Amino acid sequence: MRIVIAEDLALLREGLIRILRANGFEVVEAVDNGAALIRALTTHRPDVAIVDVRLPPTFTDEGLRSAIEARRQIPGLPIMVLSQYVEQIYARELMSDRAGAVGYLLKDRVTDVGQFIASVRQVASGSTVMDPDVVSALLTHRSADPQLLELSPREHEVLALMAQGRSNAAIAARMFVTEKTVSKHSNSIFTKLGLKPSEDDNRRILAVLAYLQG
Amino acid sequence: MTDSSGTTLPGGSSPSRERSGPGPVARNGPAPRSALGLRMSLLGWSLVLLTGSILGAVLATVWITSMSITALGVGIPLILLTTALVRWFADLHRQWAADRLGVPVPARPYQPTPDAGWLVRLWTILRDPATWRDWIWLVVNSITIWFSSGLSLLFFAFGVLYLTYPLIYQLTPPQVFRTPMGEAFRLHSVAQSFALVPLGPVFLLLWYTTAARLANLNARVIRALLGPTEQARLRARVQQLATSRAETVDTQAGELRRIERDLHDGAQARLVSLGMSLGLAEQLLPKDPQAAQQLLAEARESTSSALTELRDLVRGIHPPVLADRGLEGALKALALVNPIPTTVVTRLPGRLPAPIESAAYFAVAEALSNAIKHAQARQIRITVEFAPHRGGAAGELTMLVSDDGRGGASIDSGTGLRGIQRRLAAFDGTLTVDSPPGGPTEVRMSLPCVS
Description:
The complex is a heterodimer. Chain A is built from eleven helices and six strands. Chain A is of the alpha/beta class. By secondary structure, chain B is α+β, with helices and mostly antiparallel strands. Chains A and B meet through helix 4 of A and helix 11 and helix 12 of B.
């Protein structure tokens, strides 16, 4: 699997490369600023881009902006964003183009190498992975969206786990129910949120997006 | 809403009004009322002020007399008494002038009287230039008032007099009211007196058009004579700056201590324990790889906790999203994770200076958490607006946090709002709270931006 990395701190960049190579990924290019990131992505068209939010020259959210900009040119490009902190507003922006898989994780999740590699693979395969911090912030946030209020507590739980990028099987294992129950819950979620079956591939992402914007 | 030109002396209202700062519009200017009603009330005021000026002249005389008999001993208590009277009297006029002109009353210009012996107090009063300005005002006012309030009153009186002249002619004894304009013009019959009636509306019109202007003129004279001098203003300003600087330094020092403690007890300690775990794991690796693996897993946990602590610390010093997105983005991010539905409305010209952004962000965040904790609100609204001063990039940033909760919030009731007020004071900013019991609550904050 081919990967482009954007991270300005050399130590972290080397660490990421090492972890990814050790797990059988091919790091085609590692850059350290926003402009170089867009160039690298458009030349290599990797399977997934791993991007730090804060990059030179502005040292603000250059990485995030560049990733969103690159995806405008390469629709459907899976992007995994790493950050020192997670902010819902960024999660929303990343997902709002509805044009591909997104991951948004705290940088220290990388230290759980197994879980991190699994997340990268999930994003590469088109799933959406949200950091548990974002999800738990959402759980405590009393939503004003009437559609979301219709969801039962059980369905809320399923949606939250969906937002963390888990498959139905993983959700079932976590909630101690059968996979069939999970798919029943998720169908009910899609109905309540008014998502049509024709968009089946994207429905998980759209549901999570609705959840994030609630 | 206070109708300041009503029947009571406005200066009699509680001093808290002077401190309340820029509140709702009507508090600053005369309350909205019909044009005629306003003029009638001004007429009443003219009468009150005229009487007052005569009283003032008497007061000035008593005062200066008591000065001259100070040597006899009995003068001292008399001076102290009259001084208190004069200052109270001047305060009433200051308040009236402020209400009329619609500008807040400046602080009392007097130097504080020490709580010491009579002679010391007397000396302080005598040395205070404001004392002598009061005296000058009493004297000058007793003359100028006739050209403002007196004139207005005269216009009105003539208007009514001429309008009703035939009636007066009829009702009064034959020798009175027969020469309305001096000996040269003598009336001989009621019919003749009707010639004067048209003069009534002329005077009344004159009164009507000049009443507000003459009252304003009077207010300006009072303000010019009773307002603080440039020196007094500067002294008050220096005092205010010294206080706010002391508070700022205190707050900053406290903040640094907190950061130091958090780093020392938190992240630093965790890194040490991390190093110890790694050292032990290194040692155990050849003999007991399983125990080493266990230690390594613990070490990883330790880094996670250390990072979480550091993250919280950074957020408390300067939220990253504020650095990334400025005030607008940071407030929107704040509203997103708020348990109570929160709307954010901003009208900002791009990024503001970093210290202003930071102060504004923390002020709004604190007001917001205050509302969440105490108000039991269902809806919160944040409005942040930048109004540039005419010409130049300087301006005023106003922040409004309003909720539909149960109200009853006050600056004195807790540390939250008082804390914001102190933070803002370091920037010459202000905080006012409008929160009647039962709600809604409105916290209004302002920050001047100089660039």
